[in-house]
Amino acid sequence: MLLDYSEKGVKLDTSSSAKMEFTRDDMLICAVNGYVYAIHKKDGTILWERYIAITASVISVYVSDNDRVIAAGVGATHSIDLMTGEIIWSNNMKGFGYSEVSIVTTPSGIVKPLQLLENETDDLYLPPRYETVTQDQQVIIACSKGGAVAIDFNTGDTLWQYDCPGGGYRIPVAIIEPPNQELGRPTQLAYVGSGRYIYCLNARTGCLVWSVSLSWNVLGPGHITLASPWSSKLAAETNTAFSQNPSAQAANGNSSRRNKNNT
Questions:
Q1: Are residues 125 and 200 both part of a single domain?
Q2: What is the pLDDT at residue 181?
Q3: Could you tell me the CATH number of the domain that includes residue 136?
Q4: Would you say residue 215 lies in a domain?
Q5: Pair 221, 137 in one domain
Q6: What is the C-alpha separation between 38 and 246, in angstroms, rounded?
Q7: pLDDT in tens, 192-231
Q8: Could you tell me if 162 and 222 lie in one domain?
Q9: 109 and 177 share a domain?
Q10: pLDDT for position 183
Q11: Considering its fold, how many domains does the chain have in total?
């Protein structure tokens, strides 16, 4: 189901941003109190802002390499044009309520080393040459309220939904690993953590590959975090991730404590 957020519009600071020239590399995307903002890295000028959610939700954001901002919160995921702030599509994630949402996407292309031709020499002193293999379909994995939903990156259509059995209703986290024939991963896999459970899913189909329960300890908030060598390398370079900065999990826990104190 697609939602209409056009009545809120895009608010621009016409006194400054309308006169500025900028590229995607000049932009920093921020989200707070229901709004997504694009600001200029040079001086903090607001280039555009877009309302997407009520102020009670933490909004997760992700910028793709084809100029889309994926923003999610209050049980919905949105695709926003990076350069203009216009909403391209919205998916209300039917059945996921109004909780925080964690997001991750499959890459638009996978970088692979080129194979040496028979007449080429293997020079150990030269860096390998690479080619980018374009993916036929890019998938967004959005997680909330103990489940995961896959969304088509271009259309916003729901591709599959997986309700994590035994995972509870807390916000899950996910990592996507690229295919690797040598390691026995012929397809892209999504590892989803919810409660004390880990689920390995086919990122394209949502089919369960395996699942495991980790801890029987009933103490603690029950928020799980994930890491792998590959994802950690990427995170070390630029990324802020839920597993490193669990703001949404903290908000979920604070909300639960407030509700308990009010009863």
A1: yes
A2: 65
A3: 2.40.10.480
A4: yes
A5: yes
A6: 22
A7: 999 889 999 999 899 999 999 997 776 666 788 888 887 7
A8: yes
A9: yes
A10: 61
A11: 2
Residue ranges making up the domain that contains 44: 1-92
pLDDT digits (tens, 9 = 90+) for 62-87: 998 889 999 999 999 999 999 999 99
In terms of domains, do 54 and 7 share one? yes
pLDDT at position 1 is 34
64 within a domain of the structure (yes/no): yes
Residue-level pLDDT at 67: 92
Average pLDDT over residues 152-160: 95
Residue 57 sits in the same domain as residue 109? no
Query: Of the candidates 92, 112, 138, which is a domain's last residue?
Result: 92
Q: What is the pLDDT of residue 218?
A: 67
SS3 per residue for the chain: CCCCCCCCCEECCCCCHHHCCCCHHHEEEEEECCEEEEEECCCCCEEEEEECCCCCCCCEEEECCCCEEEEEECCEEEEEECCCCCEEEEECCCCCCCCCCEEEECCCEEEEECCCCCCCCCCCCCCCCEEEEECCCCEEEEEECCEEEEEECCCCCEEEEEECCCCCCCCCEEEEECCEHHHCECCCEEEEEECCEEEEEECCCCCEEEEEECCCCCCCCCCCCCCCHHHHHHHHHCCCCCCCCCHHHHHHHHHHHHHHHHC
pLDDT digits (tens, 9 = 90+) for 179-194: 766 666 667 899 999 9
* Integer angstrom CA distances of residue 68 from 82, 105, 106: 5, 12, 14
